[in-house]
Every structure is written in C-alpha cells, then in structure tokens.
Amino acid sequence: MEGGGVSDVMTKADGPVVIAAGGTGGHFFPAEALADALVARGYRVALMTDARAGRRTSGVFATADQFVLPGAGVAGRGPVRALKGGLALLRGARQARTIMAKIRPSAVVGFGGYPSVPPLLGARLLPASVRPAIVLHEGNAVLGKANAFLARFADGIGTSFATVAGLPAGARVRLTGMPVRPAIAAMAGEGYEPPGEPPDGLIRLLVWGGSLGARVFSDVVPEALSLLPLEIRERVTVTQQVRAEDLERVRTAYAAYGIASRLEPFFSDVASLMREAHLVIGRAGGSSVAELEVAGRPSVLVPLPVAASDEQTANARALEGVGAAWLMRQDTFTPDALSALLAMMLTDTGVLTAAADAAAELARPDAAERLADLVEANLPGGGLRGAASGAYSGAPSGAGNGSGTGPGEDRPATSSSSFPFIDSSTPEEARP
C-alpha cells in the first residue's frame, strides 16, 4: 500500500472520492480528467491502481493518497492463469476493503478493466452503513467484462456512447461522454481545415496504433502511400507511431518512396499533432475515438481484432454510421484497399471536411464535468453542491432537449443488451 496522511476518523460524507483506474493511458486519462474536475469542486480524491500504472508522480494524483493493489486480468487466459488472476483480484478486493474501512470514501468510481475490480468489489463488501456510492464509467460501445461484472452493484453508470450493448436491465445510466485530456478538450470548436489545393498544399497524416498492434500500420501504411498517384503522394507528410524495433525499416521504406515522415515510438504532443492532422489512421479504443470527436478529425479506424468483446468494432461503427470515419477490419486492411480509399478522399477533400464535421457533432468536451455531476448526484445529499443549495438534480445546466429526457438525466436501461439514449445531438488498446 502506498499513500499517507489519511485519517481513520471520517464520516461517509466527508470521505474522499476514490478513483479506480490503472493499466494503460486509455483508462487513465479519463480518470485524471475526472479527478481534476472533482478537485476543482472542492472534493478530495484518492487513487487505487495496479502495479502497471504504479504511483503517479505528476498531475492531480501526485499529491493525493495512492494505493497500489494486486490484481490481474482473467479474460482470454488459460484456466491456470485465469485462476491465479481471479485469486489476485480477490486479494486486491480484501486489501481495498480494509483501506476503505479506514478512509471512509464517499464514492468509488471505476473506469473499467481489471484494475477497477478490487476497489469496487471491496467497496461493495463494506457494511451498508459505511458503503460508498459506486459509479462506473464505460468508455466503449460494448460493456467491458469488468464493468459487466460490476454493473449490478453500481448506483450510476456514465457512458461515452449513446448506445451501449450489454447494459443490465434497470441500470441507472447517463450519457456523459468520455473525459479527455485538457489539451484535447481545448480543441473543441476550433474547426477543420482540409488539405490545401494542389500542387503545393500539404496533406498531413497522423498514424497511431497504441501499445498493441501498431505493427500492422507499419506493415501496411507505407506501402499503401507508395501506391498513390504521384501528384498526391508527393504532397503527403506522415507522423506515425512506430514500435522501436520497427523504426529503421519503416524509416527506410518512407525514404525509398520519397515520403516525408516523423516516426516515434511515443508522442507526448498528441494535441498539437491532432491539430495539424488532415486525417488520422488508427485503432478505435474509447479514448482515441473520443479525442477524434472533440478534435473534429476524420479518421480511418482499424479495430484491434483481439479486443475481448470486440468493443473497438462497435466504437468504429458508431462513427462510421454518421459519416465521421471509415471502418476497415484488419483482415481487409491491405495496402491496395487503403490506397484506394485514400486516393478517393484525398482527391475530393470535401469528404474529409464532411467527416470532420460529423465527428465534431459527437463531441462532448465537457464530459469530465458531466461525469463529476453523476458522481455528485450519487453522494449523500447531492454532495457539496447539494449541501450548499439544499438540493441537486444531477443534470447539467441546459441539458434538456425540450422533451424532458435530456442527456443529463439518469435513465434506467430498458434491456439487457442495449440502451438507446434520448439525445438529439447524438447520431484502450492504449492510445499513444
């Protein structure tokens, strides 16, 4: 256990909001955004995470209590490894329960993935008199396995997508959107500038693949660009995330094709790269999709084929369905197919502008505030706002759409498979 300065003497209403997140950036960036929003409202936060994420030394959690819990994934493993993973999760849940019995959190918020299981299960195991509110956030269009297990205990579930498959009947669900990093949120409403006119207008492509599966982009994208007509190819410049072991061969390929490129295993300046990009090619994890929406950028999405619930395909279909992206399954993501698609859209850049506009229509740059509203609505007395005003509705200001069923309202899921939200504005692999 890591952390310090916590008091054993707290009331349920005074306790911190525990945020359960770990692993890759796709789960951690939204958690940090929510923590920032809650701290700005006067709440204390604490972090429960896993060994992969470890102790945070920067950002909002750097000065918060932090607890590293045991745990391991279960999905997709053999029987022995699954059993060991399950036992580790149970040990983590017991440890989380012991910690929470001392710090008395007011709420526990989980962001999916196995690191969220021990804290939320531990919270559920507390006596009802001291049990904190349990809130989940689902970042994909299919309920993840961890959230599917935890949803039965949740007081509220925030979602990134207007329809989420797998929600249990009766779940209290609110469309919040996916919290994104402040630098990305700042891009909301900036608009999209398509590539300039030939022959001099550059075409800037951004290619990312996250920590898993990036190799397919290294294998396919350079050759696809080499097949473009010369009048298009000579205008293209590529910024691409490439695994360290593939850097030299990909750099050599682009040089041989006469294509300007910037290649790195990791980019820290994602917002500036997104701002410059005319088209993004990448995976369809929940955080990546949300950032494309907020930035208002057209994209070619290649879902990770080994995702546990095929959630990335569902995410990509949500964008493709409104004309905001092009979905290519990995088995059809070939140089010839990608080149033909790029030739079409780079010849008539109006299709890029239309896709960018459609993506921006899906954006919820205030998702962190919406999710903070959901957390507050489930605190005793409506949280600090409720205590100050005497009542708190939990709905963001102006959220209604005129029908009394605005996106800020909690609504029960109507079936075990999906929940259609009423919102007229709405049609993990890790991000880099």
TrEMBL record:
Q: Which EC number(s) does UniProt give?
A: 2.4.1.227
Low complexity bias locations: 386-396, 414-432
Extent of Gly residues compositional bias: 397-407
- Which controlled-vocabulary keywords does the entry list? Cell cycle, Cell division, Cell membrane, Cell shape, Cell wall biogenesis/degradation, Glycosyltransferase, Membrane, Peptidoglycan synthesis, Transferase
Q: Which pathway is this protein engaged in?
A: Cell wall biogenesis; peptidoglycan biosynthesis
Catalysed reaction(s) here are:
di-trans,octa-cis-undecaprenyl diphospho-N-acetyl-alpha-D-muramoyl-L-alanyl-D-glutamyl-meso-2,6-diaminopimeloyl-D-alanyl-D-alanine + UDP-N-acetyl-alpha-D-glucosamine = di-trans,octa-cis-undecaprenyl diphospho-[N-acetyl-alpha-D-glucosaminyl-(1->4)]-N-acetyl-alpha-D-muramoyl-L-alanyl-D-glutamyl-meso-2,6-diaminopimeloyl-D-alanyl-D-alanine + UDP + H(+)
Q: Where does UDP-N-acetyl-alpha-D-glucosamine bind?
A: 24-26, 140, 181, 211, 312
Q: Name one GO molecular function term.
A: glycosyltransferase activity
Give the superkingdom in one word.
Answer: Bacteria
UniProt keyword Cell cycle, yes or no: yes
Q: Where in the cell is it found?
A: Cell membrane
Q: Which InterPro entries match?
A: GlcNAc_MurG, Glyco_trans_28_C, GlycoTrans_28_N
Q: Which residues form the Glycosyl transferase family 28 C-terminal domain?
A: 205-371
Q: Where is the Glycosyltransferase family 28 N-terminal domain?
A: 17-157
Report the membrane topology from the UniProt record. Answer: Peripheral membrane protein
Q: Where is this region: Disordered?
A: 385-432
Sequence similarity: Belongs to the glycosyltransferase 28 family. MurG subfamily.
Q: Mind telling me which NCBIfam families this protein's record contains?
A: murG
Described purpose of this protein according to its UniProt entry: Cell wall formation. Catalyzes the transfer of a GlcNAc subunit on undecaprenyl-pyrophosphoryl-MurNAc-pentapeptide (lipid intermediate I) to form undecaprenyl-pyrophosphoryl-MurNAc-(pentapeptide)GlcNAc (lipid intermediate II).
Please report the name of this protein according to its UniProt entry. Answer: UDP-N-acetylglucosamine--N-acetylmuramyl-(pentapeptide) pyrophosphoryl-undecaprenol N-acetylglucosamine transferase
Q: Which organism is it from?
A: Acetobacter musti
